[in-house]
Amino acid sequence: MKVKIQLNQLIEAVQDVMKAVSSRTTIPILTGIKMEVTYDGVHLTGSDSDISIERLIPVEEGDLVHIEVKQEGSVVLPARYFSEIVKKLPNDSVEIEVGERFETTLRSGASEFSLLGLDPEEYPRLPQIEENLVFEIQSDLLKAMIRQTVFAVSTSETRPILTGVNWTLTDGVLNCIATDSHRLAERKMPIDSQSEELSFQNVVIPGKSLNELSKILDENAEKVQIVVTNNQILFKAKNILLFSRLLDGNYPDTSKLIPSESKTTFVLKTKEFLQAIDRASLLAREGRNNVVKLATLDNQTIELSSNSPEIGKVFEHMIAEEIEGEELKISFNAKYVMEALKVMDCTEISILFTGAMRPFLIQPVSDDSIRQLILPVRTY
Amino acid sequence: MKVKIQLNQLIEAVQDVMKAVSSRTTIPILTGIKMEVTYDGVHLTGSDSDISIERLIPVEEGDLVHIEVKQEGSVVLPARYFSEIVKKLPNDSVEIEVGERFETTLRSGASEFSLLGLDPEEYPRLPQIEENLVFEIQSDLLKAMIRQTVFAVSTSETRPILTGVNWTLTDGVLNCIATDSHRLAERKMPIDSQSEELSFQNVVIPGKSLNELSKILDENAEKVQIVVTNNQILFKAKNILLFSRLLDGNYPDTSKLIPSESKTTFVLKTKEFLQAIDRASLLAREGRNNVVKLATLDNQTIELSSNSPEIGKVFEHMIAEEIEGEELKISFNAKYVMEALKVMDCTEISILFTGAMRPFLIQPVSDDSIRQLILPVRTY
């Protein structure tokens, strides 16, 4: 194997595949990045066996030549060292050559590294995926869907299935749900698909995989192809493949959790409400329970308050855009409400309450494509 | 006490005094910030008993009115909560009022905080300083002197005196020296002082104090007054006082460590050399010893190399601007050389060697106001 690669291309590609490389793997070869050079370009692969990322650096794009292939071949290089080295090389390009026993030389300017590579034949194969169930989403919309749900997955391994986001596709609508049993985030999106009858359920994608996917996707309107199988999901973007295993087990039925009626409804300015909760919870953080009380007052006013006996107390008043229905006193974990508000990309939100002990729903004023359900805390 | 303060002024002042507040203090009242309101302005004090910082917010500056004093008085407020609250208040200003039992109300917009304050009489007094030994340095030069020496203090408590920077003033020249016994940083600067006969020695300032001082000083040409006493040093900048205790004990005599002759001298481009060492040490980091070998080759070339049996090896070649004297092979800890090079604010440096086993000296090409001495490592 012998190849000359433009460094900016290589640095970017290595950063992408590094997102799948874990330093704590039990399989030694997975601490490496597999590099395969063909006359198509350079293929890099990183994997922690749950997530695998393959990244192509094409030989040329438009007028730009990224790569000069001198001899095809492949090698596995120590990921952490390789990624640090490429970032610091002095020239615009690097020549990489594999010698005997996979000893690999990197030359750039007056700098010469020699790394002990490993046999690429020992690197695990990427999963073979049957492409029966395929649909597409715009890259920026997929990133938004991930951001709006993945924060709500459970971080505890007591119910592993809740560490993933549950995807279902029915009647041309993709529905993503995450819950840690204290709050639930739901995001729906219509999918334009050729085959209307495409459907699946209980596709539970590990939160970590979605976070890494979101980092390597570009914020643009290009399509990402998604292939779903029994135990794997594959995301195909430009020059990138990301494979993730799916979580085993049945995701709980969450459809009955979301209340269908409301006794009290607010319309509030999202940012103003977020900032008021942020302040109201300032004295209740760190080891405390983050609990903030909310009460309706006269004149469309809501009051947020909290009280920490050793430190002090805080009152926030806020004029709602609208308040309808019964008076209300309710307590909640400020962290959950703030995290939900932060992903609502709308200036005004509705909050629907069905009583102080029942979960309440936060959603955009004029649609229900995003719904955030939060369990109250018993204090009033 | 009752006062209205512009928030931007308060936030900045609180950030400054917070640098002296430690969360791990054994004296409970020092987890607070003392606030004293007089018709001069608002005085804030933070202290961990080693360092104390007092910050004044003046009533007005130029045309700007920062403060409306309604009633003089003082209180001690919980530092961490107070500093988080002021950063998040909704209005441009905050009204602070102390009520019974030091319960303190902060009002800003529709936000009202009530904090349990403490009795300011219980807050330790700042040290009384006799102003016999006083001199001045420009703020930006003082920051540079700190940056160029403090990184070399010891982080180990086995010889506490080495955790400080040793300041001496003789013949109108301030000399600052830091060493952790593996390397030594020295910075000299002439002081324009009225009293030529001003002198002191063995004034050892804790590295931590100098780091905090550097953070709160502005990068400008305003003068900082420095007052030295037996066991305290006081820095007076605009609206700021920083008191630091001095370290007890005698700083070792370092004057004989610096070689007066050299057998091999290089002149090198600082940045190019720094980057080459950075790369040459990439395979020798983390648990390894950071050791890089340097050897002179023919044609004004120097070679940097390192070898990590399990990972690989690296060679860097670099054309020196000048090489004079004997051939040389020497090994050193790359971290020490890189840290020294990073504070050399000059494009070219000289390195003076007196043999592979003797300390070598890095300094600017045309002056010796900064000298960085580094002990080699035995490998060749």
UniProtKB/TrEMBL annotation, chains A, B:
Location(s), subcellular: Cytoplasm
A GO MF term: DNA-directed DNA polymerase activity
UniProt cross-references to InterPro entries, sorted A to Z: DNA_clamp_sf, DNA_polIII_beta, DNA_polIII_beta_C, DNA_polIII_beta_cen, DNA_polIII_beta_N
Keyword DNA-binding: yes
Pfam annotation, one family: DNA_pol3_beta_2
Highest rank taxon of the organism: Bacteria
PANTHER family for the chain: BETA SLIDING CLAMP, DNA POLYMERASE III SUBUNIT BETA
Quaternary structure note: Forms a ring-shaped head-to-tail homodimer around DNA.
Protein name: Beta sliding clamp
Species of provenance: Fictibacillus phosphorivorans
